[in-house]
Amino acid sequence: MYCTVIEENRCTTKYSSYASATPYHLLYQTVRLQFKYLKKTLNILATNWVHLVGFYITTYVSIALFKLLGVPHYGGGSWIQTLLLSLVSIPFLFFTYGLKIIVGFFGVLVLLDLIGFRFTKSSIRTILLVEWLLIIPIFIGWAFEYEYWLWITLALSFLVTQYWREQKLKRIIVV
Asked: How far is Cα 36 from Cα 144, in angstroms, rounded to an integer?
């Protein structure tokens, strides 16, 4: 039985002959709706893993590209060292040097997701583009401040992974 109108502990529906509902039934329906909403929210937040994969792939390709172009600080060692050692060193880089950055990045992203998908009725693409526009200036600033050009490629990677996320979010949020 699904309640369509609730007034003074009574539940009326056009699909059932039951004319009243107990307070326990109303509590059950409320809790059920809250769990459904919580599950949807967690599914939205779970789509953020794609950024970590995108950053890994972008870092690997960028290191090879920077070595090919002769960008300083990326040219040491042979090509075999660059291509094979990067497979192991990139996760090490992420979870040692970049751990604070990754935690902060995902923290801000989760906060923006909660605000964007909970309090606005904007389209998915608009919300994701606003997230990108709010986070990217930090990446660009770090690229020029520290002359560490990987931040620029990571900014572009973030845009691409936001597009991938949009495809996943369309399946979660029925538009």
From this structure: 45
Cα–Cα distances in angstroms (integers) from residue 125 to residues 43, 71, 75, 92, 104, in the given order: 17, 34, 38, 33, 23
3-class DSSP state of 54: helix
Residue 3, pLDDT above cutoff 60: no
Sign of CA dihedral 44, 59, 125, 128: positive
The SS3 call for residue 116 is helix
Q: Alpha-carbon distance 6 to 20, whole Å?
A: 9
Where does residue 63 rank: exposed (0-12), middle (13-18), buried (19+ CB within 10 A)?
A: buried
Cβ-based burial of 161 (10 A; exposed 0-12, middle 13-18, buried ≥19): buried
Domain ranges of the chain: 5-37, 47-172
CA distance 135 to 143: 13
| Range with top average pLDDT, 11-20, 23-32, 82-91, 136-145 | 136-145
Phi, psi of 53 (to 5 degrees): -65, -45
